[in-house]
Amino acid sequence: MENTVYPGRKRRFGDHYDAFRIRKGDPFFAVIPHVMKNRTGSMVLFEESIEITRLEQFIRRMRRETEMTDLSTLHVVMAAAVRLFAMHPGLNRYISGRKLYARNQIALSIAVKNTMSEKGQETTLKLDFPPTDSLEDIWKKLHGEIEAVKCSAQNNDTYRTAELLKRMPVWMLRFVVFLLWHMDEGGVMPQAIHGVSPFHASAFVVDIGSTGIGSVYHHLYDFGSCSTFLSIGKKETSFRRGRYGSVRPVRTINFRFVVDERICDGYYYARAMRHFRRILRHPEVLLTPLTKAVPDPWL
Description:
This protein is an alpha+beta fold. It has a single domain, classed as Chloramphenicol acetyltransferase-like domain (Chloramphenicol Acetyltransferase, 2-Layer Sandwich). The chain has helices at about 30-35, 55-65, 75-85, 135-150, 155-165, 170-185, 190-195, 265-280, and strands spanning about 20, 45-50, 95, 100-105, 105-115, 120-130, 205, 230-240, 245-260. A hairpin with a 2-residue loop joins strand 3 (about 95) and strand 4. The protein starts with 18 loop residues before the first strand and ends in an 18-residue tail after the last helix. The mean pLDDT is about 90.
């Protein structure tokens, strides 16, 4: 498993192969996992309604002028999420075995249906993105993977793994999940399982807006290490009051976030969300690759 966030840093005893254990920093964050013992009991929910007028103009221009002819809001949001984790490493942490870890890669999971119908098969994709990836890099990876799923969801490694587990007797499946859970806490889960598990990711992104409904608050999972769930709602036209009392129509998307409050404080989350809003209002910044990721100050 490639270390793309902290290249050159060596693993120490107690580190996981996808993360380094945080041994310093605010002592409060070393104690709180023993008070709030699971991820679902530590969830914080909030939403952001972001104007996308410039974003829509940007997407239309990219479709005309570049090879990204099917560029969508989802692609830009995924690229913005990668940039956010690269520049705000506190978001890319997780709790496992009541210890705090800094992830050494940026991995995003996304739910995909091969056809938008009730009979369409749904599976999940998990993609690793170097923190230096530009919008074009991320579009290429997503474009290829999503097209492959649309051809056949059964060709996806995650789908095949789930199909294999489904064939087990219930008692055996319960034992296997129990075993994997405890192996994961000890940092010895088989990398083959970790690689296809959508629950081991920096964030889970779901594009609810593509189904024609608003965003939802989706719970986190106690299994795995995902500390952030991002739900993208449908595009809407709303009215906002200007500086001198005038009212103007604007295009917006409502985003809903569910996060683990044990990995960083509220002020850190607030700063990161302001940055996320700026990126989507000025998406052209994603065309330039990032030089390198910001290191976690607690490592």
